[in-house]
Amino acid sequence: MRLFPHLIKLKQTGKIRFIGITGLPLRIFTYVLDRVPPGTVDVILSYSHYSINDSTLEDLLPYLKSKGIGVISASLLSMGLFTEAGPPEWHPASSQLKVEETIAAAVELATAGMDEETIAEITDILKPVKNQTLASGI
To answer: How far apart are CA 50 and CA 46, in angstroms?
Structure first.
């Protein structure tokens, strides 16, 4: 929290344009935003909380909107969890979940095409954060 006054000065002098925060646990956003002056933070970067297995970021969107915070949602594939290559070793998911999800994703990718139903599901998943999702883990 001691850093924010310095960031505000840098923004006021034009050295930086935006102030943002990122973190895996969603509670970090409310923790910080409830403790800094309104308008201090411009954007948050959340990852793995609006993906095909987790949509908890959606619950936080009204709060962020009320604060005027921009939202970037990254890692639609849960940091590689749903890719044939699988997640990195440091991935926070349990080892069992990593193996199960990676195998399931690999089988699905190998056997399924992009039919209308799949496209509709993806569209529904991305609805709250459309045009704000960065792909990763591919």
So the answer is: 8
d(CA 98, CA 102): 6
Q: Give 131 or 56, the one with higher predicted confidence.
A: 56
Provide the 3-class DSSP secondary structure of residue 33.
helix
Condensed to tens digits (0 to 9), the pLDDT of residues 56-84 reads 899 999 999 999 999 988 877 677 766 66
What CA–CA distance (Å, rounded) separates 31 from 104? 35
Predicted local confidence at residue 23, as pLDDT: 87
| Phi/psi at 60 (5° precision) | -85, -15
Q: Are 84 and 107 in contact (CB under 8 A)?
A: no
- Taking the model in full, what pTM does it have? 0.65
Question: Domain of 99?
Answer: 4-134
**How many domains does the chain fold into?**
1
- State the DSSP H helix or E strand holding residue 108, giving kind and residue range, or none if neither: helix 95-111
- Residue 97: CB atoms within 10 A of its CB come to 15
Mean pLDDT of the chain: 78
Q: What 3-state DSSP class applies to 9?
A: helix
Written as six digits, the tokens of 89 are 């070793």
